[in-house]
Please model this.
Amino acid sequence: MALDRLIEKIEQTQNPTVAGLDPKLDYVPEYIKKKCFEKHGETLKGAAKALYEFNKGLIDALYDIVPAVKPQAAYYEMYGVAGVKALYKTQEYARSKGMYVITDGKRNDIGTTMEAYATAHLGKVKVGGEEYEPFLGDALTVNGYLGSDGIKPLLKVCKENDKGIFVLVKTSNPSSGELQDRPVAGTPIYELMGNMCEEWGKELSGVYGYSGVGAVTGATYPEQIKRLREILPHTFFLIPGYGAQGATAADIAAAFDKNGLGGIVNSSRGIMCAYQKEKCSEREFAEAARREAIRMRDEIMGYVGKITTAKG
Amino acid sequence: MALDRLIEKIEQTQNPTVAGLDPKLDYVPEYIKKKCFEKHGETLKGAAKALYEFNKGLIDALYDIVPAVKPQAAYYEMYGVAGVKALYKTQEYARSKGMYVITDGKRNDIGTTMEAYATAHLGKVKVGGEEYEPFLGDALTVNGYLGSDGIKPLLKVCKENDKGIFVLVKTSNPSSGELQDRPVAGTPIYELMGNMCEEWGKELSGVYGYSGVGAVTGATYPEQIKRLREILPHTFFLIPGYGAQGATAADIAAAFDKNGLGGIVNSSRGIMCAYQKEKCSEREFAEAARREAIRMRDEIMGYVGKITTAKG
Model:
């Protein structure tokens, strides 16, 4: 139930980080693109095959030390139907390697339409007498601007399929405060959204104290993370903004409880483009990604300490 | 530029309505499902082919009298990669018939990720020396919770490709007020979001007085529509909630200016499932959809009067 499977993977790997798979074609080594373009042409299919090859190499290099991947739907949709197929195949491959899959889609709608998104990304759909998993996420990021009508359909599907969600609360971008920081009777909107996560989470309680309704809280806002950890004791945090967006391990330390639980920190470009930063051979992209994942893990674990689900 | 092409189509058809294409398999006539399942099995592909056949019949029945279609991405994603292909083919067919395509995806993210969504749904992507349109929308619905960082990347792509967006302002669902109605220094959040639409729209001004940044405003909240029309003179409204959700033509009358411009009203189930409501033969689904579209047009035009882009 809830995000328990993710928490168990984090404990098992002693690593509260997730590798974001946001594969722009610019990030993919030339030799992979060349191979795929020779076979499929400079087409959307050729591009999609290159993204998948790249992701596969990253997953092979990371699956034993990193608990989860977070493919960002936008980068797959950008390559059309073929790109969306690469998203599915990436999810499938990550799952086959035992990784937890967080689909970053920030989906939102109401009623039966939100049910359709929940079914698409976390559930199963019936076609005649058969049943299929349309996409293969273990958790999905969602946007709560529409209120409970947009979240409740997810809770039902999460319960039935042992899945979780992460609701946008305080996002990592510079302009996130334009709306999210505005005060409603003295309380900023992101806190209101956080409080709603605690409330929605009551329907999806987990065995390790955290519910199946997590929150997205940007690493670039350390004070807000600290405050949110205090007021949202049952809400697990998905934390973007580390590395490329400028936040450090010290900035996110407050997200974690005394057992080292409470959050998972994302790095996308930092890991995917490690070979460019290292200026090593592009054929070493996977090894460079692994080196960066280890560096990041060790840096963050320096603040987190030992991770345990054992009751103290 | 902006939403001008949509406004021209509305004037040409004298019809400020859009047909929502949210095709659940339950809505599709049995004879279409039977044919597609016989050919492709009870598979996601079989389901997707059935959705497309259904949509094609609806578009054929509507394209000369209804200016636009609004496929809702969730219902296609629900059938996996095959379903997403049906979305593309539906957009392609609607475009070939001259209809304006509003992709209802409520996408949202920041920076380069939002650029990727903008490219996916409104732009063109480069693959080597070639350029492709990943999906074929003329406009996209988006969620502004993340602030300007989530909207500005869209404006650039809209400008380059003559496209528009609709930002969620006041949604039609019962719980929309949980967040959207909360007051910030006396101003409800939906008004703040509306004001941001006016501001963002300055970068995409249109020749008929309305910018390329529209707002989603639920027909179920007539008082709020009235207020938003007063304070947002350059913002075109996409109005869901008519029919199945209980709103009437009288409820949305205030959205329109003295030239009959200012909004477009969506009906999904009302049109798609007209044959079920009429209890006619399912083979008459397209004719029934047309009858309902004409009824809806005439009812709304009773409040709107003549639609003209001519300067008064």
In short: The two ends of chain A are 22 Å apart (CA to CA). The mean pLDDT of chain A is 96. Chain A touches chain B through 72 residues (CB under 8 Å).
